Amino acid sequence: MTEYRPAILDDYQQVSADYADWTSVGADGVSVTVFSTPFASESAVIQALLDFDIIVAMRERTPFPRAVLANLPRLKLLITTGAANAAIDLAAAEECGVTVCGTGGSPSAAPELTWALLLALARNLTAEENALRAGRWQNTVGFELARKTLGIVGLGKIGHKVAAYAHAFGMNVLAWSQNLDAATAEAAGVRKVSKDQLFRESDIVTLHLRLSQRSEGTVGEAELRLLGPGGMLINTARGPLVNQPALIRALEEGWIRGAAVDVYDQEPLPAGHPLLSAPNTVLTPHLGYVTYESYAQFYGGALEDVKAWLAGAPVRQLTRQQ
Predict the structure, then answer these.
(1) Which of 61, 191, 257, 286 is catalytic?
(2) What is the DSSP letter of 142?
(3) Catalytic residue among 5, 267, 273, 304
(4) Cα separation, 295 vs 287, whole angstroms
(5) Which residues on neighbouring strands pair with residue 8, listed in sequence order?
(6) 267 assigned to active site
(7) 6-106+292-310, what's its fold?
C-alpha cells in the first residue's frame, strides 16, 4: 500500500481536528502533520514541506507560486479551502503534475462580517468601547444608515447579500465592476454606475471583487479622494484591491472619514504596521471566513478531497482554464 504524508498548513487556531476526523484516513496510510504558524519565506515553505505528498492550504495564507511548486517534488495533491485561490499558480501546478482541489464554503460568513464592520464604523463602536473601558462616557457622534448610499464594488454572491442587507436598512445602493451588466444590477435592486460615480456618490463603499492582476489596485488615491471627507471604505475581500499607502495617507490626512479593514497586503499584520496606528479605523484579523460553519465546510471538504484523490477520483478540481 502506498503511504502518503499529508500536511495541514496555517491552522493558526489549531482547530482543524475539531472540524474533520483526520484519523478516518489512517487506514489509507495517512498520518497528518499540522503547521500552526506562518512560514517566513518561500525557502522556509520549501524546506518545511519537502517530504509531503498532500498539502491542505488555508486560503491564501501560504502562496504556492511556480518557484515553490517546482521545488516540492513529492507533492501530488494540493487542496485549498474555498473554491478559488489567487496564491496558487495553477499553470505551474499542472506542469508539475500536482492535482489542485478546492472545497465549499459558507455563503454568509463574509457578508455578515462586512455588515458588522460597517455598523461598527458608522457608530464608532471601537472608539466608544475603548473610551468606556478608560472611564469616559459618550465621546463620538455616529450616523444612521437609513437613506444613505452604499456603493458595492463587485456584485457577485457576496455583493448580492450585502445589497440585500442595505435594502433592509433603508439604504440606496449603487454597484460597479468591469463586467457588471445593468440587468444583473436591476434584478438586485441596485443602480449600475461608473466607477468614479460610485465613489463620488456613495457614503460608504464596500469591496467584493475577486483578486486578480486586473483587480489589484482597484482603489487608489483617485478613488479615495472621490469618496471624500465624509465617506467610508470597507474591505473584507482582499488587501491588494486597495493601494495600502494611499489608504494610510487618506486616513492620516482626512481624505475619508474612516475605514474598516479585515484583509491586508501582508498577513498576519506585523507589529508596528502603520495601519495599526491610523485614525478612524476598525481593524479585524481576516475574520471573513472564520466561523464554525465555514470551517466545517473547509476542513470537512478538504478531508473529502483527500479521500476522493486516494480513491483515484478527485473532486472539485481547479484548473487554469477556470
Answers:
(1) 286
(2) -
(3) 267
(4) 11
(5) 34, 56
(6) yes
(7) Rossmann fold (3.40.50)
| pLDDT value of position 320 | 79
Q: Helix, strand or coil for residue 97?
A: coil
For residue 311, which phi and psi values (nearest 5 degrees)?
Answer: -85, 0
Average pLDDT score over residue span 75-88: 95
Q: Out of 59, 191, 208, 238, which one is annotated catalytic?
A: 238
On whether the CB atoms of residues 144 and 150 are closer than 8 A, the answer is no
Q: Which fold has domain 109-283?
A: Rossmann fold (3.40.50)
Q: Can you give the length of the chain in residues?
A: 322
Could you write out the DSSP letters of every residue in 33-97?
EE--S--SSHHHHHHHHTT-SEEEE-TTSS-B-HHHHTT-TT--EEEESSS--TTB-HHHHHHTT
Domain boundaries, the chain: 6-106+292-310, 109-283
286 assigned to active site: yes
pLDDT single digits (tens) 117-131: 999 999 999 999 999
pLDDT tier for residue 45 given thresholds of 50, 70 and 90: very high
* Annotation says 238 is catalytic: yes
Phi-psi bin for 313: left (phi > 0), alpha (psi -120 to 50), beta? beta
* C-alpha cell at position 226: 472621490
DSSP secondary-structure letter at 300? Answer: H
